[in-house]
């Protein structure tokens, strides 16, 4: 009789455990809400002990994306996610491949986890430059051709890469050798807040979700407050952008990242109604005809002075904005090794970019603000 009772209790216990296991499995796979609000190529779903990160647009016109499961220590991952790459978080050692990734690491306070970077000379941040100069961040080659020997020696927990297409042989080789490679598509975003929101990607990778949320929410709030301030203006000054390269003038199209900033600053960018998210290629005569009387010239390529501009092309002096010395550039603000701070930090801090532009075209709105990225050329 005792054996019968014992057997019965064991069956009940196993059944109960099985039911709880099924319940836990069901609970962990209940559909969560995507927390991403602005980025179009990123989705993040958070569950108890893990998160699912979808990179839906890793490069332009990508036919498929990538799904990564960020697993906290000891967390149960349901069988339905077995086909995806599982990354134990927080990662301790990482290699990133774009300078735009570095500000996210620094904002989250995890820059000491960076052990390798391709093209270290392009890094402008003082904090990360100090680590590079101290030999704590190794040169890893180039994004398209990472030094596999260095990468194997570094043995990072994750490599955060990017690709202009699906054909990145080095990253594919690293994946085949067991390295966790994650594609980051922040550079494909066009909206200012969409680019900045990719800090959430790194928040998941380092198990710092709350910190990433707080940082982005502050940037978003400051951006929207500046945007609302600009709505109070009664006039929209006209703006020209770009410059000549060889025989063509290149300037941003109306749906591009740079053009959207000017729209939010309530500046009348003269090509703001054009279709596309890339660059226009125009003749000098076409630009002169439309923008000769523009009030401001913002972003004249890499020129660092008015003299340098006319030495390159004397016809620049025909523009009213040049004559009035209302030409602004980010080319003068560089890191210790010559990298442009704007290219590294601006995608992560659109609030500062927008305030810069408002200060330029509507200086009365921000009387005490000092330009962060831009500078009036002399």
Written account of the structure:
By secondary structure, the chain is of the alpha/beta class. Helix content is 35%, strand content 18%. The chain has helices at 2-28, 102-107, 126-133, 148-154, 169-176, 192-196, 199-205, 209-230, 257-264, 284-291, 306-312, 320-323, 341-345, 350-361; strands at 42-47, 50-55, 66-72, 85-89, 94-96, 114-117, 138-139, 141-142, 145-146, 158-161, 181-183, 238-240, 243-245, 248-252, 268-269, 279-282, 296-298, 327-329, 375-376. Helix 7 packs antiparallel against helix 8 (209-230). The protein starts with a helix and ends with a strand. Mean pLDDT is 91; it is low at 1-29.
Write the layout of secondary structure elements.
Layout: H1 2-28, E1 42-47, E2 50-55, E3 66-72, E4 85-89, E5 94-96, H2 102-107, E6 114-117, H3 126-133, E7 138-139, E8 141-142, E9 145-146, H4 148-154, E10 158-161, H5 169-176, E11 181-183, H6 192-196, H7 199-205, H8 209-230, E12 238-240, E13 243-245, E14 248-252, H9 257-264, E15 268-269, E16 279-282, H10 284-291, E17 296-298, H11 306-312, H12 320-323, E18 327-329, H13 341-345, H14 350-361, E19 375-376
Parallel strand pairs: 3-4, 5-6, 5-10, 6-7, 10-11, 12-15, 12-17, 17-18
Antiparallel strand pairs: 1-2, 2-3, 8-9, 13-14, 14-16, 18-19
Proportion in helices: 25-40%
Number of H- or I-type helical stretches: 14
Strand order of the largest sheet: 7-6-5-10-11
Alpha-beta content class: alpha/beta
Distance between the termini: 99 Å
**Rough shape?**
globular
Secondary structure tally: strands? 19
On the 0 to 100 scale, the average pLDDT is: 91
**In percent terms, what proportion of residues is strand?**
15-25%
Largest sheet composition = 5 strands, parallel
Mind telling me the C-alpha Rg? Answer: 25 Å
Stretches where pLDDT is under 50 for at least 5 consecutive residues are 1-29
